[in-house]
Amino acid sequence: MSLMDKIDRSRLPQHIAIIMDGNGRWAQEKGEDRLFGHYHGVESVRNIVEGAAELGVKYLTLYAFSTENWDRPEPEVNGLMILLADTIRQEVGTLNKNNIRLQLIGNIDMLPGYASKELLEAVELTGKNDGLTLIIALSYSSRWELVNAVKLIATDVQAGKLAPRQISEHTLRNYLSTSAYPDPELMIRTSGEFRISNFLLYQLAYAELYFTDTRWPDFRKEHLYEAIINFQQRQRRFGKTGEQIKGNAATDAH
Ligand code: IPE
Ligand code: IPE
Ligand code: MG
What is the pLDDT of residue 252? Predict the structure, then answer.
């Protein structure tokens, strides 16, 4: 039985989020420049997007560049921006062919003009596709997003559009850049680091976390399948007891 066959298609995570980490170390271990790792990381992105689409996953969020990553050495940042723009330009046709809708979260205004132009065009060109929604987090950090949400809420309160007593979890969710997507059920981080690094802090409240030592440029569909199989073996309790969850499962089955 292949790994893919071990996946229960009726219980797929609807939304998978990935912290694509380890490009730099992968390259340095080979005696190469960090950018060499980023170039190879693009191959993994292609493979995983294809794998997620084939399975029927509805949303895939990829953390590609964080707010904090702006502090890296300038040649690495510039190289990443050029790689990003080139990749999007090359891939937009394939995205359309595979019915994939591209979306962005993050402070896109911070990107150089040539990159944001390419990205926004691709969002526009793929906007009508209704297969996989691929969300790229770029110049994104959760604290940036939350501060933004607070500012927007304060503005609406000041304008009299929103009363403080009306603010609920639902309101807050609507002011996040992810308001149109369900929360991720599975979050994968590659390359052996056990941290969230300012990624979707609010949205990951009940996500299952999966960490693997595999460096991002080595990560392929089979690794994604392993993560999903692992996810499907877990009992998600959402604060309840295991017995309550089993009871529900028994009722659901009848
Ligand atoms: C992830 O790989 C890609 C980005 C953050 C842009 P890294 O570049 O963080 O690789 P390591 O963690 O240094 O190996
Ligand atoms: C997180 O990786 C950001 C992305 C994958 C885009 P980092 O490599 O920047 O995270 P830290 O610095 O190890 O926490
Ligand atoms: Mg890293």
Answer: 61
